[in-house]
Structure formats: structure tokens, C-alpha cells
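User: I'm putting together a small comparison set for a docking exercise, and I want a reference complex before I start. The sequence is below, and the ligand is nicotinamide-adenine-dinucleotide. Could you produce the 3D structure with the ligand included, as C-alpha cells?
Assistant: Of course. I'll restate your input first, then give the C-alpha cells for the complex.
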Amino acid sequence: MSRTYVVTGSASGIGRATALLLAERGEHVIGVDLSGADIEVDLSTDEGRRTLVEEATRRSGGRVDGVIAVAGSTAEVPATVGVNFFGMRMTLEGLRPLLEESDAPRAVGVTSIMSLSPNDAELVRILTAGDESAALVRASELVAEGRAELIYPSTKQALAQWIRSSAATEAWAGRGIPLNAVAPGVVATPMTNATLATAEGRALLHELAPMPLNGPAAPPGSPARLLAWLAGEECTHLCGQVIFVDGGSDVLARGASTW
Ligand SMILES: NC(=O)c1ccc[n+]([C@@H]2O[C@H](COP(=O)([O-])OP(=O)(O)OC[C@H]3O[C@@H](n4cnc5c(N)ncnc54)[C@H](O)[C@@H]3O)[C@@H](O)[C@H]2O)c1
């Protein structure tokens, strides 16, 4: 009996690799992306998020077994808070009623090794408070101040915090839904390929995320296999974990400490 999965960001990179892997295993996959997907929506908008829930309900018949929220962007613009934090959170929350119809529901988001990089504490505070209008204003201020590079790590730090603080609550653990995250290091996808193509770019990525295990860029199949496991039936007791699949970057950054 196949399971039904909703995978956002399914048209490219890690989301595409995850959707293909699940489909190869005979699972029913509903792909979501701006274009080139079963459900074509902009997850940085309320309308896109509403359409996602309506269309996923229609296409799944009202029951989804796994939600894998991958869609994200590194663009140094305010709308990045819309897709990376609110888009991912609302994908997971909006589809939770469909997960509740499953015998083995699972939910997974994607953060990043960059969640450990310097961020804007004010933007992280606003994001975790759930105020999208204020987050867009704060992100615009960062752009105006020439500090737009802080937007991406702020969104990923806030998402990791949201997953940690939500997973053990009644809404998730209380309803039998493991909620976890994968934090990739550098992965060779359209998001990074241009940077990986030059020596200067590779040096920059190495500085941001050195990967002593198996090299400077993982193929997208590496996080995809972990995402598929976290969204699969075997994942029964993992709760609120942010798992770094990063060739050792997190170990180098945080040492022996787990916090
Ligand atoms: N590639 C890396 O090195 C890396 C490292 C850490 C984390 N990540 C995270 O992994 C996830 C996937 O990244 P990727 O490397 O596969 O990138 P990618 O650019 O190949 O794929 C991202 C997908 O998200 C979709 N998307 C972007 N904005 C959207 C929106 N507003 N609405 C709907 N879909 C939207 C894009 O169209 C694209 O198909 C992202 O959340 C990213 O932040 C990537």
C-alpha cells in the first residue's frame, strides 16, 4: 500500500531528488513548486499557501502520510522570509489536518548549516513571534542597511527554533506526528551550482561550511534519502530533531557540544 507525500520545492534540487526517490519507491507524490509541479503556487504569499491546502486536499482525497517542506530561496530580498519561514511553517501547519487522517503521519522541514551563521536577532525574534508583516519590514531595513545577507540565516535559525518548540506540543507529538528537520551543508543544486563553478565561489562556500567528510558539496540524493526516511513509517520516535547532513560542518562549528 503506497503512502501519499506532499513535497514542496519538487521542481529542483533537493526537493526534486526527494520527489523522484519516493516515486521510484512506488509512493504517491504530490509535487509543489512555482512551476513544473502538480501544484503550482508561490509559497511566499497567503494566496499560494491557501491554494496549496485546497489543491493538496483535493488531489490526496483528504489524507496525506508525509509532508516534506523543502522549497526555499537564498535571494537577499524581503520575500525570502515569506517562503523560507512562513511558507515552510504554513505548509506544515496547513497540511496537518490531512496528516491527522494518516495511520503513520510524518512532517519534515529543511533548515541549513547557515542556521548557525551570524543572523539578525531582531528578525529571528519577529519570525518566531509569527508576525509576517513586521518580518517583511525588518528584512527591508536589512536590505536598506546593506545587511541583506543576514536574511537567509535568520529565516533558517527561526525555522529550526519553531520546529524545536513545536514538535513536542499537543498539535504534533500529541497527535502522533513526528516533526523534524534536515539541515544540509553545501549541496550541489541549482541554488549553489553557479558558486561551485568558480574557485572563488568554492573557497567562499568552504569558509561558510567546510565539509571534511566526502568533500565540498553533497549530491542532492544525500539529504533526499534522509528526508524520505524522516517522512517514512520507520521514523516513530524522533521528535524535534534538526539533523545536519553536512559532511561535518556542524561538528567543526559546535565541537563536542550538542547545543
Ligand atoms: N543547496 C544547498 O547547498 C542548501 C544548503 C542548505 C539548505 N538548503 C535548503 O534546501 C532547500 C532546497 O534548496 P535547493 O538547493 O534544492 O535549491 P533549488 O533552488 O534547487 O530548489 C528550490 C526550489 O524551491 C522553489 N521555490 C523557491 N521559492 C518558492 C516559492 N516562493 N514558492 C514555491 N516554491 C519556491 C524553487 O522554485 C525551486 O524549485 C531550500 O530550503 C534551501 O534553503 C540548500
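The radius of gyration is 17 Å. The beta strands are 4-8, 28-33, 39-40, 66-69, 106-110, 179-184, 242-245.
User: Thanks, that's exactly what I needed.
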